[in-house]
Amino acid sequence: MSEPTDLDRLVPWLRCRVAVLRASTLRRSFDVSVEVVPLADDTGRDRAHRADGADGADGADGADEQGMDRGLQVDLLCRLMAGMDSPVAVVVVRPGHHTDGDVSWAGAAHEAADVCGLRLLGVVMVSRWGWLDLLSGVRRDWKRLRIRSG
Q: Angle at the Cα of 60 (from 58 to 62), degrees rounded to 5?
């Protein structure tokens, strides 16, 4: 189980990620994207690996409510984690609030981190309203989010 302090370095980035999502998506519906963020140092967030359209629109058999089954989630995350050597956080950016289907991303992230030999610090669901770490239960929501310049 992740401790809330594990994600302390990522919290300002998550706040900014929510703000960027609000500013860049005018529609209520958009494709899910998955990011694997290395957390060895502050520069790691610039080296995040990302996959867009991770909602698996192909409708695979046995798929969860997002359209992607657990095996495909693990495979996608393993590909994003390839070559990383520091602790990581998995960030899933999605429309709407978190649902029970999001829990499958936490399980897939654990499996992928085990396969890649990496320490998993968090599985964070990001939406236009805020973020939720599925491992620790830590969440932050905003009704109005102001971004300070500088």
A: 150
**CB-based contacts of 14, cutoff 8 Å, min separation 6:** 7, 91, 124, 126, 131, 140
Q: Does residue 87 contact residue 119 with C-beta atoms inside 8 Å?
A: yes
Burial 24-45 (b: 16+ CB within 10 A, else e): eeeeeebebbbbbbbbeeeebb
Q: How confident is the model at residue 67 (pLDDT cuts 50, 70, 90)?
A: low
The beta strand positions in the chain, using DSSP E, are 33-38, 49-52, 88-93, 120-127, 130-133, 139-141
- Predicted local distance difference test score (pLDDT) of residue 44: 43
CB atoms within 10 A of CB 115: 13
- The amino acid present at 20, given as its one-letter code, is V
Kindly report the pTM of this predicted structure: 0.76
Q: What is the C-alpha separation between 12 and 138, in angstroms, rounded?
A: 14
When computed from its CA atoms, the radius of gyration of the chain, rounded to whole angstroms, is: 15
What span, in angstroms and rounded, lies between the C-alpha atoms of 60 and 6?
34
